[in-house]
Design brief:
alpha/beta, D-Maltodextrin-Binding Protein, domain 2, 6-stranded mixed sheet, 5-stranded mixed sheet, binds 1-O-pyrophosphono-5-O-phosphono-alpha-D-ribofuranose
């Protein structure tokens, strides 16, 4: 039975493909995709779709893809979705952080604070766990801008190199969680195609260890 794997495009794309290549998979068609959207592996009986991170979960959740590779950040934000998280690829590593301008004195502020983020669920859960009253403002990109122009008191965002925060004078106040690329599996596929999926997971596990 052939498999379909949903890959997250963008930030994780190249790292995921390198991992698949290390595991012995043929990703040339994905590397040279042009406008094609369903891309066959050139070695194994499976194909890939390249999608946005939230869509990766949606396709796996509904069984349109058997497996998916997606960041832990997206998984944490979409906790309600239905899938098995099976493997940490230990690539695409970054972390969720809380940041603000130094003068904001975020954790000392009395009353409700305003937080800008692409991850409202994660941000809300974090501040609730600190018993802080928070208003979340959803920002879709360049979240670092929002405290600079006075829209919010601080942000919850992902930090990879830290250079965007640094370039904008923002200070990391806390780390919320470590993030890396994870392999998720559709629950019905896991029952019906266990052997094929286990083989992919084992191949990837070997690549992860090789990469360590
Ligand atoms: C992410 C994140 C930060 C930046 C962090 O944004 O939201 O803005 O990367 O990376 P750094 O620590 O290496 O500077 P992304 O590039 O995905 O784009 P976006 O801001 O448009 O969402």
């Amino acid at each position: 039975m052939s498999l379909r794997i949903a890959l997250t495009k963008g930030r994780l794309e190249d790292k995921t493909l390198s991992m698949l290549e290390m595991a012995g998979y043929g990703t040339e068609k994905v590397r040279n995709k042009g406008r094609a959207l369903v891309l066959p592996d050139t070695v194994h009986d499976l194909d890939y779709i390249l999608v946005k991170s939230n869509d990766c979960i949606t396709y796996v959740d509904h069984g349109a893809a058997d497996l998916g590779v997606v960041g832990k950040d997206t998984l944490m934000e979409n906790e309600a979705a239905n899938y098995y998280e099976m493997l940490d690829l230990r690539t695409g590593c970054c972390c969720f952080i809380v940041a603000a301008l130094p003068q904001a004195d975020l954790f000392a502020k009395k009353g409700r604070i305003r937080i800008g983020t692409k991850y409202p669920h994660v941000a809300k859960a974090y501040f609730l766990s600190r018993n802080m009253d928070v208003e979340i403002i959803k920002i879709d990109g360049s979240v670092e801008l929002s405290p600079l122009i006075g829209l919010v008191d601080g942000i919850v965002d992902i930090m990879e190199t830290g250079s965007t925060l640094k370039a904008n004078g923002l200070q990391v106040l806390d780390t919320v969680a470590d993030i890396s690329a994870r392999v998720i599996v559709n629950k019905a596929s896991w029952k019906l195609k266990k052997e094929e999926i286990t083989k992919v997971l084992d191949d990837l596990k070997r690549a992860v260890n090789q990469n360590a």
